[in-house]
What does this fold into?
Amino acid sequence: MRRAAFAYFVITIGFAAYLPFLSLYYQSLGIPLAWIGALLALGWTASLLSGPAWGAVHDRFPSSRALLPLSGLIAGMSALALGLVGASPLLTVFAVGLAVGGAGLMPMLDVRTLELAGSDRTRYGLVRAFSSISFIIFAPITGFLTNARGAGAIFAIIVPSLIVAGFVAATVPGRSNVARAPSMLRAPGRVIAHRTTLLFLAGSLICWTAINAQGGFFSIYLRSLGAPADQVGWAWALQALLEVPTMLLFPVLVRRFGLSRLIVVGAVIAVVREVANATFTVPAILLACSVVQGAAYALLLVGGITFVSIHGPRDAAATAQGLFSAAAVSLSAILGVGLGGVLAEQIGTRGLYWVTVVLGVVGLVAIAASVLPARGPGPSESESASALAQALTPNSAVPPTLE
It folds into this structure.
């Protein structure tokens, strides 16, 4: 588990430079908001298609040590080219390459880590916390670097971190006690054939679309309000601040409240943050409000990955994680930044943010409908949560460690 924790830390170094600052890099090239949204949406479209594909290949070859380094190399070399070509037609080609390579890293590492966690899958949160720690450290560092060297300096962090990350992640043991998937083409169908999983994926798509529509233009929004680049970095770091304790305490929280309720709470917090972003226009207040985002992100992400790992078919576990990543990350980002860019051009960023508040509420209702047990005959929510917690955690009152 320590190898997995280190792998998450290294991978996120690149993401801490990529997610907050890529839109600012595009803006520095003179690209208008609508086209920035289109470029970001194109990258997420590539992730949407390639994430499940990486998962299906990994399910077919669960012990392979070549897939993760290959994913990191594709992402890193594409990022290098992206920083060199400037505002040329090749920009779109290498933006797609970065997305395709990066889309494979997390789902393949996730499914390996979940297998290492064994019956207590809530340990995943303990390991994933190192991803948040990395983000908190390197988002501000990237902000200071861009202030000093310009927006293109982000690639000095993105390129080496993603290449190294693939090799580091490959040191995590491959999956051994799982049957090889009978067909890469049929694996996605096996996952979405399960009604509970399908409903959850749909609810996650709506919720994360609202989150990504705000996040995709948050850096530009702060700069328009007069915030310097280093403050933008701190804003993204603050968003990750509550992720660490939430992930570390995730096993305890599941035992106390149940997995389903935690996921719903995460969606509620996300809506609260969306309302705050649409309401306030003072950068200092927006920075303060950023703190609550971490809890929402941790509960929705770790809770979602755990939920899918429980309900998805075992011989298509990596495909299930790839589909969750496609819905919660890629497709939601396509809709969020693609349509968000068009709306931002027409009604402004604040107008876009109010639209996402409505969407966030719809996502909250959809997620609650998919994860909370129906009332009436059968076990109550507390009984279901207790049974789930007992199934996921060992017979010990002490939270598990990384040992």
